Amino acid sequence: MSTRSAPIRLATRGSALALVQARSVERSLKGRRHDVELVEVETTGDQIRDELIHRLGKTGAFVRSLDEQVLDGSVEGAVHSMKDMPTDSPEELIVAAIPQRASAGDLLVTPDGSDLEELPAGATVGTGSLRRQAQLLAKRPDLEVEPLRGNVDTRVEKLLAGHLQAEHDERTAAEEERRGNADDPEFEPEYERRPEEWIEGLSKIERRALERDVETTYDAIVLAAAGLERSNLLERVPTRPLPIGEFVPAAGQGAIAVTMLDTELAESVHDAVDHPRTRVETTVERTVLAALGGGCVAPIGIHALVQGEHVRTRVQVLARDGEHTISVSRDLPVERHAEAARELAGELADRGARELIEEAKREADDEETAADRSDDEVEE
Fold first, then answer.
1. How far apart are CA 95 and CA 279, in angstroms?
2. Catalytic annotation on 212?
């Protein structure tokens, strides 16, 4: 039981998904008699809504603003999606707790439930992740992979918008035809329900999608299973799991982390919230990522799963166009998992991963330089 009289203030992003994650931590702490207050903070990633994650300038676009609140004493802790956390966080910050992880994998989301192989040649797939882009192109080089940003609800709406609006146009035209043939007893309408009845039967997210401006019509999008599950959308849209062996998730995907500064308070939070197996798995993943030095500018997938005395670890490093891939699957000993993870990263680097990551960094620098030049031209 905590002897602290003031509430533990936890910084969180204000998105629906971030609040769901923060509230799960809040419930766990309150279950151990801690008083908790959530503090919403707008991050750099939230402010720059029209940029892809890898072009936000620095790693940790959704993290640093929260941790700054911890470092300056405005709050006692911050709740993060672990996959967004940079591996070079300030040394004084403590990862106080890592709750039990949700599903780590990715899902293909389509309007009709198609799987990846069923998508037509040249289909447009949306993602804001370099890793997912490279993995998609490695599997289906014919695909058109287009940028996609926004919270989970927004991304699903963007997927549904073009298809629903096309169907609405078809239904509206069919209704006009029905009215034009109202006196023809042999006329059979194409749709039983009229457009307004069809709209009434749509879900809330479908209605919002119907009202969106369509910039890109996506045939599919790729999202984290954990995000859809925590947003209560998993049962509302058709999904197909992408095999982890080919679509290795981002390090820490599906996991939540609580960062703090005060050692004594961090220990108390650790005892209330931390899940030992998840901590081992995410430690392996983040250790490999840090040793490879890929950050968020290189397509790298890392997934670890504790199985008895070993940690089954998959690592995948790709070229950004998906043409070259270096991958490995290895059982690491639990008792020395961090050291073994560093050794595995060194082996991958020697096998060519270092060159792929350096090339990805050069491409990212070239993109940033081109973007800066474009901005200068606009200003002039």
1. 10
2. no
